[in-house]
Design brief:
This protein is of the alpha+beta class. The protein has one domain: Gcn5-related N-acetyltransferase (GNAT) (Aminopeptidase, 3-Layer(aba) Sandwich). Helices cover about 30% and strands about 30% of the residues. The protein has six helices and seven strands. It has a seven-stranded mixed sheet. The longest helix has 15 residues. It starts with a strand and ends in a 10-residue tail after the last strand.
Length: about 180
């Protein structure tokens, strides 16, 4: 069973651990964050102030990763870059434990997040995410969940994002369980 627990102070050491090595660091990065104070500032102060809702993902009550969602138009630069519109929500996530990657947990997480987080908002019409074009495993996962590639963009940080979108309603809630 997948659960989402709001990120709080007790999760900062876990976030620091997850983003210090492995697949989470490779694909999600840590943007130069070094100390617990850096992580605390970014994830408990900056992100909530910008409208991002942050959670620790749990599977069978065990922390397995991080997920966040937000209204795309709360971030005008990114909204413009991805051709977002009113009613679009963004979703970002990583599985923090490499031993859990590649066995379908990502698909379970995305399906649950669409149902319980993103499309639980009455104004949510679409969900957008932007994995690295080189992250084939994540792209396959998102495709299984109903996302389609719409464009590849270059961010202001010089990173390419493979922009994928899924609409509401979506049969993703019946697939990939």
């Amino acid at each position: 069973m997948i659960e989402f627990t709001p990120l709080d102070e007790s999760h900062i050491p876990l976030m620091q651990e997850w983003l210090s090595s492995g697949e989470a660091l490779r694909w999600y990065g840590c943007d130069g964050l070094r100390s617990e104070g850096d992580f605390r500032q970014k994830y408990l102060v900056d992100k909530p102030a910008g409208g991002t809702h942050s959670f620790i993902m749990r599977r069978d009550r065990i922390p397995i990763g991080y997920i966040q969602y937000y209204r795309v138009d709360d971030y005008p630069d990114w909204c413009s870059l991805v051709s977002g519109r009113h009613g679009d929500y963004g979703l970002d996530l990583f599985i923090g434990r490499d031993d859990l990657i590649g066995n379908g947990i990502g698909t379970q997480v995305v399906v649950a997040a669409l149902r319980e987080l993103v499309f639980a908002n009455d104004d949510a019409e679409r969900c957008i995410l932007g994995p690295s074009p080189e992250n084939a495993r994540a792209i396959r996962c998102y495709e299984k969940c109903g996302f389609e590639h719409v464009r590849t963009v270059m961010t202001d940080r010089g990173e390419r994002e493979y922009v994928m979108v899924t609409d509401r309603p979506n049969d993703v809630f019946h697939r990939a369980k």
